[in-house]
Design brief:
This protein is α/β, with parallel strands linked by helices and 217 residues long. 28% of the residues lie in helices and 29% in strands. It has one domain: Vaccinia Virus protein VP39 (Rossmann fold, 3-Layer(aba) Sandwich). The strands form two sheets. It has an eight-stranded mixed β-sheet with strand order 6-7-5-4-8-9-11-10. The longest helix is centred in the N-terminal third of the chain and has 13 residues.
Length: 217
Amino acid sequence: MKRTLTKTADGSYTLFVPELDEHYHSIHGALQEAEHVFIKHGIELFKHQDRIQVLEMGLGTCLNAYLTCRWAQENQKSIFYCGVEAFPVESAVIAQCLDALGTVDNKERTFFSHLSYGECQALGSFELYPLHATWNSLRNMEEFDLVYYDAFGPRAQAEMWTMEHFKIAYDALKSGGLLTTYCAKGQVKRHLKSVGFEVESRPGPPGKREMTLAWKH
């Protein structure tokens, strides 16, 4: 898959995929989007727990994983993080994206840019298990508290937003677990409800009016 680096409005980088005509993150600000959708309206909602298990659909440039790791350190939490990625990003590209944030130290840079897929690695209380796999190949996953659903948008990859794929997320979550995503399309919300989620709309990140939370109760 061909990918090119693109600077977004807040100075952080994302990747552009010509064959899909799609970016990995919002061009209005990759960092702002990740912090809003996956930190503020994701991991922050579980700050009452000492240990949190996160499953990410689309590890990509490791932006969400890095921000979650930083949040864990700041809040003294223990996190197990499984990132599922069908098309791993090159180490040098991940490093360049992280460097642009201006907050990443050398230890973090090395940790996130030199992933050993299929092996669990740890940085303090943050455990990362990068998994080279497709989402629909997942079976009998551990019970997670939180799913970061960060697939390409429905326009580019409609198959990633089906009831079948959301059922995988639903089954991977504990009771009381949460799926958070930037996408707020009506059909996506209907599919989430159809597999059993309780759906909630929240204000979106810059450039988007809404985002979606889906709870497993």
